[in-house]
Amino acid sequence: MESSVCPFCHLSLPSSVLQWHANSHFEDEDKEAKDLELANQIQIAASSSSINVNSISSLIGSQTRGSYYHVKDGLISLLRNCLELEARHNSSITILSGYVDHFHSLPYVDVGWGCGWRNIQMLSSHLLAHRQEAREVLFSGSGFVPDIAFLQRWLEIAWERGFDPPGAQHFNCKVYGTSHMIGTTECASLFRSFGLRARVVDFGPKESEELYLSVPGSTLGQPVTQRNSVRVSGPMDRYVHHQQVLNKGRQSCDSSGKCSNNSKGKSEGPQVLVDWVWNYFSDKGLTVSGSSRVIVSDKAPLYFQHDGHSRTIIGIQVKNQPNGWRQFNLLILDPSERTIALEKSLKTNVGWQKLIKRGVHTLKKPQYQLCYIDPGIASKEELEELKTINSKFFEL
């Protein structure tokens, strides 16, 4: 995808939206009025809460841009070139998200706890570049991705408005200025507070279906709390451990979304997650036309959570094997990797596979979560429903 750099803020964007973005820099004379209008809208939408309109207006006006290493033409463009070259030799097919900026954790700033916030920044960069409706509502229509401190304040405002009460209770509605780890539900709460349709999907052993996949503040082996099978809450960076039952039937899904039980061993478990990701990006159907073996989807990246860490899935690759099997690789951006290292490996076409590809055999955790964002903006009635964070469960 052809990209250009904004001459005013130096943000790299698809050429198709550059003019719209650049024009937004000349609307500062109306910014104060627009900020107040947005704050009033938030107050109306949250009439049952006690949000301070002045504090929201102040936040809108003072938020600062999140810093990141700018890659000319974007990482996705570089990755697409490498995948195209690779496909000439192995006949693979790859589906990618569109433009995504990589936000890596910074030493002495957020290493060890900031991965969740960095993934939110990556998802935000995609939404701002590709979805007009998201640009209009995210972060007051600022057109840029805020730094972690301001994301923390936006999450606190989401809680004050009534999104994810269990998560808000765990953090006592306070994350600003802290090094608290967050996860999938916090990601969903933040995006939902702007009217975006963020969804959560759980993957784990059957016995986890009626249990919290995450107990706020829990450590491995602690007692779990009963929950409704579709309710989740709290930070997802630390999971409750459940011993997987060996040699039991597991569910496997093919690319058409059809699922069946099998007993081929525990390697089949992670395939359920990979099949889900393939179906998500291909929308359960894929037509390859022309010579291109790399397709850019209109799907947003996925927030990918497991025990102790989270990353961003930006696509998936499949290779047909001679025996009829299909080999899948998740394509991920990891906040723990340095952007400059990713850029160098992609430009030289050397070593990028180790940094970005993850095969099914690498998925060794007992539980995973994904957060994805459906298109469109929720109505006022739907927004009330989105305050409750539900999930769909798949057995590994």
UniProtKB/TrEMBL annotation:
Gene3D superfamilies reported in the protein's UniProt record: 3.90.70.130
Q: Which residues form the UFSP1/2/DUB catalytic domain?
A: 91-371
Q: Where is the composition biased (Low complexity)?
A: 252-264
Q: Which GO terms describe its molecular function?
A: hydrolase activity
- Domain of life of the organism encoding this protein: Eukaryota
Annotated stretches, region: Disordered: 248-268
Ordered alphabetically, the record's keywords are:
Hydrolase
Protein name as catalogued: UFSP1/2/DUB catalytic domain-containing protein
Which species is listed as the source? Hibiscus trionum (Flower of an hour)
